[in-house]
Amino acid sequence: MSSPPPILDLKNVNKVYPSAGEAPVEVLRDIDLTLEAGSSTAIVGPSGSGKSTLLQIIGTLDRATSGTVRIAGQDVAGLSDDQLAELRSRMIGFVFQMHHLLPHCTALENVLVPVLANSKPGKDTVERARKLLDRVGLSHRLNHLPGQMSGGERQRTAIVRALINQPKLLLADEPTGALDRASAEALAVLLAELNREEKVTLIVVTHAPELAATMDRTLRIEDGRLLPTE
Fold this sequence. Notes:
Layout: E1 8-19, E2 22-35, E3 40-44, H1 51-58, E4 66-71, E5 74-75, H2 81-91, E6 92-95, H3 107-116, H4 123-135, H5 151-163, E7 169-173, H6 181-197, E8 201-205, H7 209-212, E9 217-222, E10 225-228
Parallel strand pairs: 3-8, 3-9, 6-7, 7-8
Antiparallel strand pairs: 1-2, 1-4, 4-5, 9-10
Helix pairs in contact: 3-4, 3-5, 5-6
């Protein structure tokens, strides 16, 4: 029996933005990246080096100018916008620096938002949401609004929301950037634990060495090129 394809496989990926009256801007250059299911990877590098652009291409929020992006063996280049949206809802969870919770929804309701895009949440899904919120220490916040929670609690809620559909890929863009040191350290540990428990492939873009250190490996972007760290 052949082994399953890597959860993520990038070959010679480039991203170029046109610039009126000037030379095009090369943001990503010849990116090769292969990740196996359940792994965790930190991507570091200076501001403007292409980290977030790479994450958006991996998450199918943007398209590569050239090269190949495969998710679980599927080449995403030929997919329509609707097909990409379906792939994201089924395969990919996102966590951003700002939590982007809906202010008038409770923690539990916010977690269930991704499910509402497809259907009314079933009993099993609601129970999974409750269990995940309990797992991240928020069982006492189920019915609280974002404005009634701390920054760390809001970000933990956002992580549970990203996990509710049982994605294969969890993409986090500076997830600790808006948190105080203690909350950031706790969140770094939590992400590493959920990576193992949920068997989700985790990619974190970060400036925080403490967060990067909790991942299986760290890669660095410089001038649009992806390099292993020393």
